[in-house]
Fold:
Amino acid sequence: MNFKPFNRYLLVAPEEEKEEKSMTIVLPTEYKKAKSPYVFCTVQQVSEDSKFHGTLFDGDQILIERRMLCNVDITEKPVYLVLENYVYGRYTDENN
Structure:
């Protein structure tokens, strides 16, 4: 099944955070490391009515606010969407 975003949404894949393994510290079992309020995502598809259509392409890396990432989990594979207003910018390395 393929998902196509509409209404100014972007279909994205959030990047997983890398765990650091440098030393052992004993913490309570309920403890969870605070996540950054921002997350990098890989663009998978841009809706045709978005202002980013023709500007952002599949595979581009964008920075968004984590709380604005919508996780639609109604099929066996979750879909992640973000409204175009919550895209802070595109990330490119020095080689691009």
In short: The first strand starts at residue 9 and ends at 14. The chain has a mean pLDDT of 87.
